[in-house]
Amino acid sequence: MKFKNIFIATSVIALSFTSCAEGFLEDLPSSAIVIDGNNALATKSDLELAVNGLYGKLNSASALAANHQTYQELTGDLAFVGISNSGRFTQTNGWGHINADEGAGTGIWNQIYGVIANANFILEYEGKIASQQDAEEIAELFAHAYAIRAYCYSVLMQYFAPNFGDANQNLGVPYPTTFDINAKLPRSTVNEVYNGILSDLTAAKTNMLTNNGNKKFNPETIDLLTARVYLYMKNYPKAIEFADLALNGPTPLLTRAQVNTYFGPVGENASYETLFQIYESANENPGSNEAISATWSSVGTYHQNWMRRSFWKTFPSTDIRKTAWYPDNAAVNALMDDPKPIDVRKYVTPSRDVVLFRKTEAKFIQFEALYHTNPSAAATELFNWVKTYRDTGYVLPATSGQTLLDEILRQKGFEFFLEGHRFTDLKRNHKPVDKTGQNSNTFVAAADYYKFIWPIPISEMQTNPNVVQNPGY
Q1: Which residues pair with 274 in a beta bridge?
Q2: Distance of CA 303 to CAs 54, 60, 74, 298, 308, Å?
């Protein structure tokens, strides 16, 4: 496995970072951390700088701060690129972006492995920074590196590996856990990678002793990610167990009354719902041409990516999300698209923090896991949540069977549109992607079509002869 975009340097240069005098938990991430490679992490202060730099590296438009969310929707069935566009993402309407020759996955692969390399570098120093007075704080700093590494591997598995238990289980992803920029590792098995993720999450939870706010990982986030991983692994009792732990944490769920303001300035800094979001500000963000807001919503730079009206119409006017997050307005009705698009109003400025984990996801993990273990309970929980939190007039269409699972996924698709879930949800549940009926598009990907597993980028294949390509490419 080769690594790119590593922030570690082998010579001392000035640190581009605000003083840590007020402590790690109050500092916001910086994306320009450079450490002395000769004695890189000698003190707690060094470690604080490195971990803040690790958080800063999450803020990349090519992966977790923009393109991850965009590709999850545009590769799915609920979104499309409009007729009037900048030329970006246009191949997604027919899945032409999924190819080994420097396709959409290249930026995601390179950027996320760069974050993993940095986490591995930091974790090389675990047990080597001696300070009896600060021992618990030092252990907690390493816990952040474990949590970030676990999350990054879970994202890679969403794209580049088969579902747990399906297809060739030898084709996980390369799984380095030590810092070696020259390593050329083969792919680990799906089980090995997921077990490694769970091990990292256990290590993170053990030493994550404080609530760090929503700009960094905290115990609730770790419980939610653990529940998500167990759902991916089809271990439904464990998914329910950790979803319950996340739901029992101190952060309140997003209420119906709060939906209107959640993705605005009020919600960005609120103490409810958000468990972890990538820090953005007027001075530190991916930029007006690269951020999520650039291509989504009618006020973006390119205003070209939209929700499908056919999906939006399946929700009644009593659902608060239908106008708060997804409006039908003059801006979209003036476009040439047929049918007309639906505006997406979650990210309208580059400075809005990018939400990666919010508490309501634990409810949907609970719904889906219960569907596989106790469908009646799943139906009851889903009905109660939608009726209470989103749609006062909600009528549950089914209490069991495929229709119930489809309703869980429909509600999740509406709730978490543009938050990095849809393509993975379809892949995990063996659902097809039907993009027909929008602007004469005729593309359909049957369930389990080979492109549901993205190819290893050709640049990786050329550099690392030990990596096997996914079938079909």
Answers
A1: 358
A2: 31, 20, 14, 5, 14
Q: Helix/strand/coil (H, E, C) string of 206-220?
A: HHCCCCCCCCCCCHH
- Structure tokens given for 131: 């300070």
Q: Where are the alpha helices (DSSP H) in 39-134?
A: 44-57, 67-74, 105-123
pLDDT, residue 38, reads 60
Please tell me the predicted confidence (pLDDT) of residue 24: 58
Both tokens assigned to 305: 């990516």
The rounded distance, in Å, linking the Cα atoms of 416 and 237 is 23
pLDDT of 189 reads: 98
Q: How far apart are CA 213 and CA 255, in angstroms?
A: 19
| Residue 357 tokens, joined | 């984990």
Q: How far is it, in rounded angstroms, from Cα 404 to Cα 378? A: 9
Q: Is 471 helix (H, G, I), strand (E, B) or coil?
A: coil
Tokens of 109: 């692969």
Separation CA 234–CA 231 (nearest Å): 5
DSSP 340: P
Q: In angstroms, how far is CA 171 from the centroid of its own chain?
A: 21
* Average of per-residue pLDDT across 425-453: 97
Q: Give the pLDDT confidence of 108-121 residue by residue, as tens digits.
A: 999 999 999 999 99
Q: Where are the alpha helices (DSSP H) in 325-440?
A: 330-333, 360-373, 375-389, 401-415, 422-428
Residue 4 has pLDDT above 80, yes or no: no
How far apart are the C-alpha atoms of 443 and 336, rounded to whole Å? 20
Check residue 356 and report its DSSP letter: E
Rg (CA), the chain: 22
With 70 as the cut, is the pLDDT of residue 8 above it?
no
DSSP three-state, residue 107:
helix
339 upstream amide cis, omega within 30 of 0 = yes
* Separation of alpha carbons 364 and 460, rounded Å: 35
For the segment 289-297, the average pLDDT, to the nearest whole number, is 97
What pLDDT does residue 15 have? 32
Query: Is a pLDDT exceeding 90 seen at residue 79?
Result: yes
Q: Write the DSSP assignment of 111-179 as a string of letters.
A: HHHHHHHHHHHHHTTTT-S--STTHHHHHHHHHHHHHHHHHHHHHHHHHHSPPTTSS-TT-------S-
pLDDT score of 33: 47
**CA 168 to chain CA centroid, nearest Å:** 24
59, 161, 70, 160: which is closest to 111 by C-alpha?
A: 59
